[in-house]
Amino acid sequence: MILDRHSFGIWSFIAKHAFKAVFTKIGQLSVSRAIIDTLRERETALYIHIPFCRSICFYCPYVRFPIGRDSKLISKYVNALCSEIKAYGNLLKELDLKIADIHAGGGTPSLLSGRYFKMILESLAENFGAEPRIAIEANPEDLRDEAHVFDLVDNGVTEVSLGVQSFNERMLKSLGRRHTPEDSLMAIENLHEAGVEYTNIDMMYMIPTRSHDSPQSIDEWRADLEKAIELDVDEITCYPTLITDYCIGYRWVKSGEVVQPDKRTFKKMVYLTEDILSSAGFEPVEIYGYSKKSGWKYVTVNYEMEGPLLGLGCGAMGFTGGFEYQNTCSVPDYIQSVREGKFPIAGARFVDLRERAIRYTTCRLFVCRHLSFVELKRKLGEGIDKFIKKSGFGRFLQLLRLTGRIKYRTEGIQLTRKGLFTAHQICWAFVLNVPCRISEKFLKDPWPEKVHIP
To answer: Which of 438, 190, 429, 425 is nearest to 318 (CA)?
Structure first.
């Protein structure tokens, strides 16, 4: 099996046909007006993209740029970020926005020194009154240095999502990762010593291996999970290895030089993850996320799907709730655009209330496992019947209900255990056909006239 955008059968078909969008180039005045007019909620999350990496992993689907830690380009980039923050602050100052969460992803945010995060947080405090705290994604090799970890925590890093991926050296090499299992253990220890508030670790399965070698086995994945639950971490997130057309390893997989485990193994790995982590005291909070801290999880996907989210930095995507935009994916173009006093938005589109309702429902039910009717009405101002009862999406939900994959309750809709693997297929078919396709197309051209998705 190849986990690409075509491999999920009916779910790939639905993702390709149910979600069609066109991003177009839009003028600066139109951008400003669209953001102000559609940002109706007074609490928003903020995502900052740090595209820099020491090297590119074989199957990375994100906007990334190879660079060393000490490059002058990083300083220019952070200065541009602070300018972009100021531009949004000036635009939205009359709205009295509250920043609910600040996350930095990449790329590799942990490449940055603490002083850069201090600059970013000071700019956010000055322009939005935001608290001086940020959650970042990190690579284990960056956190081997205890002094660097303390520097990050002392300058506002309060949550870390650590890209462990595996404790198996063969799997790490297959992914093109630079770090070792020992690096991951040392990074976790250093985070605790430095006093970080929350630690999540990312784990990966369905890892492609050389065709002459044995595929990743159920026992190898079980060993990774059992090692993960021994550690003092607050959350464990587990992702299948997705194959995009633009990742380094794409041609190896397509040519058969490397292979992934089969679909039956994929399903077994999904349910093994659920059983091992749940029995170890980790509460299922998403179909891929399991938390030991009641009321806390490392949040990124919810805001991207549901809004509102302000996206800052090269390659960042923002969604106000009614307006979705994509920043240019070229680092030099991003810096130049901000220097010229422009929003670095390469393409944008409007999202109507019905689409937002479907996005919200899909995220809550097939990612977060439960849709609350009360929360949906609070978020969107109308009940579920208004949006989907007689729609094709409503009929789709009825089919899942009849097959036992979801269950209707008085307060909402619940994903069942039987529906867990279906939810994974729906989720990853969407991810590969929509956000990954958006990144792929905007990586090809810094300022395209029009982009059709998928």
So the answer is: 438
DSSP assignment of 257-297: SEE---HHHHHHHHHHHHHHHHHTT-EE-SSSEEESSTT--
Written as six digits, the tokens of 186 are: 């040392």
How far is it, in rounded angstroms, from Cα 415 to Cα 401?
9
Q: What angle do CA 55, 261, 178 make, to 5 degrees?
A: 20
Helix, strand, coil distribution of the chain in percent, nearest 5:
45, 20, 35
Task: Encode pLDDT of 319-369 as tens digits.
Answer: 999 999 999 999 999 999 999 999 999 999 999 999 999 999 999 999 999
Q: What are phi and psi of 400, to 5 degrees?
A: -65, -35
Domain layout of the chain by residue ranges: 32-303
Choose the weakest-confidence range: 64-73, 81-90, 281-290, 426-435.
64-73
CB contact at 8 A, 260 and 253: yes
Distance, CA of 225 to CA of 237 (rounded, Å): 10
CA 192, 193, 199 angle in degrees (round to 5)? 20
Angle at 429 between CA 426 and CA 432, to 5 degrees: 145
CATH topology of domain 32-303: pyruvate-formate lyase- activating enzyme (3.80.30)
How many whole angstroms separate alpha carbon 322 and alpha carbon 302?
Answer: 15
96 φ/ψ sector (left φ>0, alpha ψ -120 to 50, else beta):
left
Radius of gyration of the chain measured on its C-alpha atoms: 21
| CA-based nearest residue to 352, from 316, 389, 380 | 380
